[in-house]
Amino acid sequence: MKRLATLAATGLAASLVLSACSSSKSSGGSSSSDSSKPVTITLLAPNYGSGTADDSKNYWGDIITAFEAKYPNVKVQLQEATWDNLATKLTTALQNNDAPDLFEGGGYADVAAQGLLYKASDIVSPQTLSNLIPHVAQLGQTKGQDGQQAQYGIPFTTSTRAFFYNTQLFQQAGITTAPQTWADIATDAAKIKALGKTGFGLPLGSEEAQAETYLWTLGNGGGYKDASGKWDINSPQNIETFQWLTNNLVKPGLTEPDPGTKDRTDLWKDFAAGNIGMINGSPALLPILKEGTIGSNFKSSPIPGKTGTLSTPLGVADFIEAFNSHPDHKTAIGEFLDFALQKQYQEKFDNLYDLLPATQDAAADLSASNPALKPFIDALPTAAWYPSSDPNWDPASQKVKDIVGKAVTSDPKGVLDQIQAVATASN
């Protein structure tokens, strides 16, 4: 199961000199183009599956088949990518002035600032917009090329995080309660190591290091930005966080030897195989646990912080963005988005991949029909989110993925200084 993440897919595109094609503005997905004329729109999306049996191609294929039956003059061409090459595919397309009509899975702020995207209100219906979970929809707002704040990112799927632990290993190690603090984690990890297992799984590799970093820095009153909204990646709190990880988990051998080389999915599979005692996870971990040997020997609890559990867990959203490079595709783009964001397709996606919806009606249904997802859905309103509306988030996030693992094997201040420099480069 690949991860839900606000991918830094468009960070490289920020430096490209591109001009957006003009488009006629309207609301509710209408435009001056003739919707009766045959048109083909393109959708570039990542594969959320872990194999051909649940490949995302099948999910989108079902939607496309039903949509084309309703709108026979519109064809939808799916361009699928892995999470590892999604960023490259989009960047290459932008460099070649061949942007897809729709891109799902990544950040949006940098390309919105260049005037390359439609505003959400210009392409989808008011009904679709009003059905989005409000606090998640707000995450899609940023300043466009005109300097005005507007919604450009349309949330497609969401997730929150929790702390998972192996109850069988806890019992064998004589641990009776879930850890509440970092000190508890270190103490429990040492007991689990004595059993011949890895105490804590710390994925700081390139797959989703920005999430693990955020979880730990939130636990020390830090994060990516300060209370005033300024980038604060190299803050004293964040430096202290990585010093603690180094001295209390990594150097004592309570994690993997080099967390910077470990990706989340691989460690989740190790946890599911019973080889790791504790790990941070999302609902996307649940199907991996079903496939593993751990059985029902696990529980989830609030994520420990330095002095107590987090009251604001990490929330993550993947967005859809609509490029305006083909004005005659505008109506078809809006029609497809209205169709694809229907409750039945949101629920199908979330049940398939154990992720969370972006729409209110699907969230209400899934809370009742899928008890395993309800705690994660309930955490959405209080979650702390990536600063995805800042155009510098995408390059900063990519830099985190590239080098933050070194912060637990070398000088953390030097590593965080480098990330801070990327985040503030154009401010």
Number of domains: 2
Question: Given the helix and strand composition, which structural class is it?
Answer: alpha/beta
Q: Gap between N and C termini, in Å?
A: 36 Å
Rg value: 22 Å
For the residues shown, what is the average pLDDT? 89
Give the full name of the CATH homologous superfamily of the largest domain.
Periplasmic binding protein-like II
Molecular structure report:
With 427 residues, this protein is an alpha/beta fold. The chain has two domains: 11-159 and 315-387, 3-Layer(aba) Sandwich (D-Maltodextrin-Binding Protein, domain 2), CATH 3.40.190.10; 162-312 and 396-423, D-Maltodextrin-Binding Protein, domain 2. The protein has helices at residues 56-70, 86-95, 109-113, 120-123, 126-131, 134-137, 167-172, 182-193, 209-218, 236-250, 264-272, 285-291, 330-340, 343-353, 360-369, 374-378, 393-403, 412-423, and strands spanning 39-46, 74-81, 102-106, 141-143, 149-151, 154-160, 162-166, 198-201, 276-281, 298-301, 314-322, 356-357, 384-385. Strands 1, 2, 3, 6, 11, 12 and 13 form a seven-stranded mixed β-sheet that branches. It has a four-stranded mixed β-sheet with strand order 8-9-7-10. Strands 4-5 form a two-stranded antiparallel sheet. Helix 14 (343-353) packs across helix 15. The protein is globular. It starts with 38 loop residues before the first strand and ends with a helix. The model is unreliable at 1-34 (pLDDT under 50).
